[in-house]
Amino acid sequence: MTALLHNVSGPGSTAVLLPITDGPFNLTAAAQAGPGSGQSLAPLCTLCCCGFLNRTLAVVFMVSLAFAIVVGNVVTLTVFVQTRQSRTPQGYLKVSLAIADMMVGVLVVPFSVYTEISLMVTSSLPIWYQGSSTSPASSSLGGIVSPWQPCMLIGPVFAGCTFVSISTIFLMTLERSVAILWPLQKDALVTRRRTLLLILLSWGASFLLALAPLIFSSNFILEYNECSRMCNYTPLLLGGQLPPDANILLLFPTFDFTLLGGTLVVNILSFTSIRRYSRKRKLLSEGSLSDGGGGGAGGGVGGCPHRPSFSDIKAAKTIGILTFAFTASFSPIAVFVLGNVVGYTWCNFSFVAFWILTGNSCCNVIIYSVRDHRFRKGVTLLFKRDHSPPHGDKS
Known about the structure:
This protein is mainly alpha-helical. It has helices at residues 47-50, 52-82, 89-122, 151-181, 186-189, 192-210, 212-215, 251-285, 310-341, 347-359, 363-371, 373-383; strands at 220-225, 230-235. The chain starts with 46 loop residues before the first helix and ends in a 12-residue tail after the last helix.
């Protein structure tokens, strides 16, 4: 999830980018400069945030996280490919979620590792750190055209994958709610074709939203920020002031919290139905409630017309845990974005917020391993291929 950072300032009414200094310089410092200051600024990224030891620990953390993300999601994808029982609408949604998390581990985190190591080794900013080629001033830095900014790729990938994750969790919740509330119509309502179409729409809409600040405004660029160690959206300040359309970045938390709210409502409906069903089943087992409908079409347990299976109930609870984990990891970013829009710059907090959200990319496989017995069985078969099930076993 990219966020608004005040890391560009300029004299007068012209938006410019700061030139390279002798050492690592945090462009967020420019937010403290008044218009026309024209002097070198002390970086907001202080020793406790960007010292050599701190950078070393950050790189070790990033490498470990990238390894965990890639290995965990490779296992998830392999289990889906190798296990026939995983090729269901819910399985396709899990694959979509794993691919989004994989892209974070393969592209976003390694880029931050490369940049941090470059700053440690060379003690100078890379050439592309000067700014994006979309900046008005980047075409005349000493007569040399600024190179292409890698953050123009990495930033939208991280934001887009974040949106894909929450939209996929929302779709998984809908799929489980259908299985709980309308178990007899589940196969007719939730088909593989519809699921794949919704996944494609999710990816398209998510990356369109990730590019919205660049598509609908000319006052934003993407730059690597030393505080968050991520590629962040940056406003081009005009006369030392934020552009009038800076609030466009509020689309990001609005989108996420809208889907999270919808996911919460659907989960409440599903768990209410599960609780009602479990209570009636308990009363029936104790003899306090007659079957009432026998084995008729509308009978069910204690007169309850819905009979969700045990696996459907457990899957619904697993998705509830996924929703809680994502909400917890996204909340610091939401606070950070809102704070930046109203003018606060939190350097150390930005690192914590961004990397908590990034760490969520390796949480899903852990939740599957604890909660999903089919996933555990698939992993067992994956690592014990010499003990493959009989040819006729398709359970």
